[in-house]
Amino acid sequence: MKTIQAVSYPVHFQEESYAALTNLIAKNDYSTIFVLVDENTFEACYPRFLEKLNTSRDLKLIEIASGEINKNLNTCIKVWNAITDLGGDRKSLLITLGGGVITDLGGFVASCFKRGIDFVNIPTTLLSMVDASVGGKTGIDLGVLKNQIGLFANPQMVIVDDVYLNTLDEREIQSGTAEIIKYGLTYDYSLFEQIKKDKYNNINKLIFRSVEIKNEVVLEDPREKYLRKILNFGHTLGHAIESFYLESEDKKSLTHGEAIAIGMICESYMSSILLNLSIEKVAEIKETILSIYNKIEIQKEDFSAILDYLKHDKKNVNGQINFVLLNDFEDYKIDCIVPEELIIQSLEYYNS
Q: Cα–Cα distance between 221 and 215 in angstroms, integer?
């Protein structure tokens, strides 16, 4: 696959990408090279990375605990301390090897350490390949509130090697598929058609087109002033649902993709009431999504708690909750204000 050029960095694919990383390391003569992993990517992905990276340089490994629950400031402090203890300075490089938690947190850590050191993203999950590692967003959660602390910072490069997907179970593949569905509904309907027909069987093609789309959007709107907001479709309510299940002591946590899938169904229903999306197309979206994801029964007594999480969404302005809704496939409207009663109706529609 050809390299995709982002605003200030390339996105390389497959085995050829490691040669580009080797050249980057040689060209910049980094003082120290750190690799950030969690316990899962250390075991399943780090050996592949070492095998493919052709360098005699010493790599300093930093391992954190996996999971969204660890995407917080305390973990950042541990990583900053580790970099400091291991001799890191302004000429250091941080390579992130992992899913969205690793790439988001690692990019944030690198961007803040000594006011910024170089970093490279190597996503190992479908979700991070098609979304988290591309676009320059870094950040951490504040409690269970998603991505409340962060900044825009671009890596030196992104490496997408689909071999790492072999380390994932189907639930993690499904999680990343939600982002591909989002691209299909808002930007390129052919992706949604492929998902309907083959689910995620033609994964390389789906990944490449998804990265292409995100790059096109980010190039036009790097700071999310207008067009880039379409990438939030399904995420406004989806993040609130994800946070609620993450915080709940008596409910099983959802993956990011599972929560966003629910959010897309609900926000499609809102679109049919407030805009021009036909209820038949809403049903098509719901049927396709539920052919991939298990149905989660959201209890009515939990609706109010989910609405409370919505009030903390980072896209809110002047206390108003802003949604991205659809007039049609590939036809969106941003900054839509949705009445609370319609949000509740959309959750009931999902449950029905």
A: 10
Average confidence (pLDDT) per 10 residues, the chain, 352 residues: 93 94 96 98 97 94 96 98 98 97 97 98 97 90 91 97 96 96 97 94 94 95 91 96 93 96 98 98 98 96 95 72 96 95 98 96
Q: 239 near 146, Cβ under 8 Å?
A: yes
Is the model's pTM score more than 0.90?
Answer: yes
Burial class of residue 304, CB neighbours in 10 A (0-12, 13-18, 19+): exposed
Place domain 170-222+230-351 in its CATH homologous superfamily. Dehydroquinate synthase-like - alpha domain (1.20.1090.10)
Domain 4-167: assigned CATH number: 3.40.50.1970
| HSE of 334, CA atoms in CB hemisphere, 13 A | 13
The residue extents of the domains of the chain are: 4-167, 170-222+230-351
